[in-house]
Amino acid sequence: MTAPTAPRIRVKVCGTTSVTDAVQAAEAGADALGFIFAPISKRLVSAEVARAASLSVGPVVARVGVFLDQGLDEVLRTAERARMSAVQLHGDLSSLYVSEVARYHPVLRVLRPADLLAGADALEAAKEVAEVPGVTLMLDAPEPGGGVPLDWEALRPIFPAGAWLAGGLGPQNVAAAIRALNPVGVDAVSRLESSAGVKNHDLVWSFVVAARSGSSADGA
User: Fold this and answer.
1) CATH code matching the domain that covers 10-217, chosen among 3.20.20.70, 3.40.50.720, 3.90.1150.10, 3.40.1390.20
2) pTM of the full predicted structure?
3) Which of 32, 88, 97, 113 could form a disulfide with 12, with the two C-beta atoms 3.0–4.6 Å apart?
């Protein structure tokens, strides 16, 4: 009798700023690319460049527009212009806002550890967001893109089933993070770069391989 096979984890390479990096990540096996449209980011990309990158990889690879506390019209217009297939939302946003975005695009709703560690009410609120059709949760660091991993052991008892994990992930630690929290997907930025916004293609390949090995280990 064969052991059950672990679900294939999804891998997202975020902070994509060029067609070249998009194509390389897709060739490495990434399931999704992240394009950051938050004006404060040093990995900010224009809708035009993101659109060209989106068209270069085709529909099989998800293209995720990343936004921080931006207006609903801006999010929807930019996602459409850039040919995004999903939207990632950071910031202090109402459940109504998230639900409205989810009417048009699948949503990754980003929470910080403090949002879950604040008590039972915070956990219940997170569960309610996750139950909105088209919305999936992601746990990320207080400073996304800063390269600092989360405390996986502290999160283990409360990590939401079916959530993504981000925050300081790279080739060296992603397998351990997957074994600790069993996320459905993993997301990395800074630990895959030569400099801010410029991907190191060897690190991208290594990250995808390490994530796949981490997800298959539980089903071995």
Assistant:
1) 3.20.20.70
2) 0.91
3) 32
